[in-house]
Structure formats: structure tokens, C-alpha cells
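Quick one, T. Sequence first:
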Amino acid sequence: MRLLLTEDDAELAQFLIERFRDQGHEVMHVGDGIQGLKAATDQDFDAIIVDRMLPGMDGLELVRALRRVKATPIIYLTTMSGIDDRVRGLEAGGDDYLIKPFAFEELLARIRAMTRRQAPAAARLFAGSIEMDLVQRTVLRHGRSIELLPQEFRLLEYLLRHADRTVTRKMLLENVWDIHFDPHTSVVESHVSRLRARLNAHGEPDAIQTVRGTGYRLLASN
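C-alpha cells:
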């Protein structure tokens, strides 16, 4: 894998570089958020490791900016361990969150898991008028292109894979956000609302049905 490490702790960065290279991976290291954003925007990486507290541009700001242009898997590496911190990090567009101190083996396993999720089992998913290309990372509805943020893409992918079946809020938290506790936020509801707006931008009927008290269902005939 080719990895970007955005970390201002030089000693930790050197340790990680050596361990990743021992495992046969290529690592580019930058020490602040502005350099991290430039490197991640200008080059292609298999995964990006981001410290939450960075000089120049903090980790959340970096991830939000990067998510406007790239869907590269991102894991935070941080001492900020509160539930609110983790939720904000994932809502900003991160894919995973690991607290310092940590075991290198766990970090490597989480990165491998993130990159595996990027490799689709099937090239395309369909439900009625909606078509998703998992290789090109594109979505069409009635042949019109729909621009989605990475987390919206993952949400729609999960709904498409379960078309005409009810998925609960808990299922979405665990499978789309990898959150295995109730964060007591409206992260699911707000993302579903934004996804609906994008899918219905040209006046199409609502493809996502709310199942009161349970969750959501993507209608296969839409």
C-alpha cells in the first residue's frame, strides 16, 4: 500500500514509517495539515492517516476539505478519545478512529479493513432508476449524474444492497459509520435527509421510505 501519514510528532512518525516499511508499504510523511491536504489532493494514496491536532490546519478541517475532492480511506490517530470527538471525526468524513496510545498491529489491521471495503464485490448496483458504479464511484438516477460525498455514497451503497428491506438506525451506524454504540446524535437522520435531497434534486419521487420507529427502506421500484 501507498500511505500518507500526517503527523506532527516526529518520533511517532519515524516509528510508524519504519514499521510500515518493514511490512512492505510505502509511506509519505508530512508534519502539518496544510502540507497534508496538498499531498493528498495532488497524489493518490491507498489510505491516509491523520492526527486530529495538527499545526496549520487541524485534522477535522483537513478531512472536510479533502472529502470535497477525494474518497481515499482515512483513519484518525489521536489522543482525543471522547465520544463527541469520535462522532465529529466520522461526520467530517473519516472512515475510522484510533486512540493513542495504540498497538501498531491494530492500526495496520484497521487500514487493511478500510482498503478492503474500497474493493467492491460487484461492479454495479441497481434499484429502479438508481444506478451505482462501485469502480468509478459514480451514481446516476434516470441517467443524470448525482454528486455524493463519500459518507453519502457509503450510505446509498448499503441501502442499495438491502433494497426493499428495512434497515434500522443501529444497522446503519454499525455498517456505514462503524459505530457500535448509540452516539445520541442525528448523524443518520441528517445524512439520510441530505441523500434524499440529492436523489430527488430533479423532482423525482422519494426513493427512501421512512419506516416509523424502525429505520429506512430504499424502494426497488422508484
